[in-house]
Amino acid sequence: MAYHKSVLLDEVIEYLNIRPDGIYVDGTLGGAGHSYEIVKRLSKTGRLIGVDQDEDAICEAGRRLQEYEDRVTIVRSNYSQIRDILKTAGVGKADGILLDLGVSSYQLDAPERGFTYRMEQAPLDMRMDHRQKLTAEDIVNEYSEMDLYHIIRDYGEDRFAKNIAKHIVKARKDKRIRTSGELTEIIRMAIPKKAQASGGHPAKRAFQAIRIEVNHELEVLENTLEDMIDLLQPKGRLCIITFHSLEDRIVKLHFRKNEHPCICPREFPLCVCGKQPKGICITKKPVLPTEAETKENSRAKSAKLRVFEKI
Q1: Were both Cys, which of 46, 69, 262, 270 would link to 42 (CB 3.0–4.6 Å)?
Q2: pLDDT at residue 178 tops 60
Q3: Which of the four pLDDT bands, split at 50, 70 and 90, describes residue 106?
Q4: DSSP letter string over 291-303?
Q5: CA nearest 204: which of 159, 146, 143?
Q6: pLDDT at 231
Q7: CA trace torsion 50, 62, 242, 24 (10° rounding)
Q8: Residue 189 above 80 pLDDT?
Q9: What is the spatial distance between Cα 93 and Cα 236, in angstroms, rounded to a whole number?
Q10: Alpha-carbon torsion 259, 262, 268, 272, what sign?
Q11: What are the tens digits of pLDDT across the range 55-85?
Q12: In the predicted model, what is the mean pLDDT of residues 267-285?
């Protein structure tokens, strides 16, 4: 099992400002690349809580973190359950929380996971958590043309979303679409050849959109950011690595709202709404990978790190 090299690793460790006796949460544990570097810096009174919904990730992380098992708690769950996870672990608040919202190399490269458009016989699955029922195959074959259009347009930011949705609905009338190769070929037919020549792989955006819908990725992020900020200790930090503009926009807006929550009209001389800042955004602009990192790891190119510190 090969998980990808953790993106922005040095930067995350620096911005988490790790205290040896602190409590840290990795909400997207994956292969434990970030977590391993965090727990190495903890004393025996420190604690790391690693969370992931992917069973394969849990197994790999457990193996990698075994030497530090006295200070590590691994939980198979979605980070959206962070309040319950900390409560069950007997933890009130955390000194640092990390989310790396990228899909791991293992998930992309394992044909049976169905995340990639590069493997023709891969099943249309795309579930981060195999315990859930909804799959990419269900979405492709059962969603209405209008719903498919909105998903591919909004989540994939694909300018050919309308035509892709139309072609999917037409193709599935003949037979159920079951593999990545079948879906990729349908998408190719929906996109003009001239656009395909200069726009990267034609299925990339649509596959991203369907994956986001399968796993409710943006909804979970949007609904959990406030909980994560509230669960930080004073001076605790929330570090989030995003990989596309929709995620980054959600994080940026939530951080800004919690730094400047006042909703009074600008002409008011004093604030009367009573809303108080919860912290400050440490990174006024997102932290990007270095040129050296992107050369070594092409999947790091779109990564952005934003950091919020609790007051």
Answers
A1: 46
A2: yes
A3: low
A4: HHHHHH-GGGTT-
A5: 159
A6: 98
A7: 30
A8: yes
A9: 9
A10: negative
A11: 999 999 999 999 999 999 999 999 999 999 9
A12: 94
Six token digits for residue 300: 């790091």
| pLDDT single digits (tens) 133-166 | 999 999 999 999 999 999 999 999 999 999 999 9
Q: What is d(CA 64, CA 50) in angstroms, rounded to the nearest whole number?
A: 12
Distance CA 201, CA 268 (A): 51
Please check the confidence at residue 4 and state whether its pLDDT lies above 60: no
Q: Residue 28 and residue 215: Cα distance in Å, rounded?
A: 13
Q: Which residues contact 159 (CB under 8 A, 6 or more apart)?
A: none
Q: Return the residue matching tokens 């996109």.
A: 191
The whole-number pLDDT of residue 196 equals: 85
